[in-house]
Amino acid sequence: MVDGPEMEFTDGFETFKALDDADVVIESVRSVGDAEEVTVLGTLLSGPLGENGIWQSFDSYPPVEGLDGPVFQAEGARIPAGSGGYQILIGYRGVIEEMSIRRGVEVTYRIGAWVYRDTLPAGIVMCPADEERACADEMDRLVKEIGDAQ
Q1: What is the pTM of this model?
Q2: What is the pLDDT of residues 15-48, one digit of tens each?
Q3: Which among 87, 75, 93, 74 has a CA at the least distance from the CA of 34?
Q4: How remote is the C-alpha of 66 from its chain's centroid?
Q5: For 130, which DSSP code?
Q6: Which residue pairs from 58-62 have beta carbons closer than 8 angstroms and sit at least 24 positions apart in sequence?
């Protein structure tokens, strides 16, 4: 929920890791399905994950605490083979006057000469503060939709 007319936060719920036998280079990370008034400030990676695990939400972009490892730009990042999971961090800003629904996080990455694209089922419903019930109902629908698709 957004407390005021404008919000800024970092979502850090999703993770990504390399296979055990090949490095991965991240080409891009894209938020899928946001409303026009929501701006993606940037995409970062942090890791490898350790004792803190993942934090779902941070009050600012870029986040400044609670992360396990170094923070670096997602685009162009190399994840070493077998190094474990890395947290995907997406910064958002916007004036939320109507509900905005992110339906996934698209990660384009390269292993050797091959390029792959996966859409992680990662939903967020962003709502104005006066739409708490509608927001909760839409989040319930989105969780069911994502769960049914898997």
Answers
A1: 0.86
A2: 888 888 999 999 999 999 887 778 999 999 998 8
A3: 93
A4: 16
A5: G
A6: 58/9, 58/10, 58/12, 58/89, 59/9, 60/8, 60/9, 60/10, 61/8, 61/9, 61/10, 61/89, 61/91, 61/92, 61/93, 62/10, 62/89, 62/91
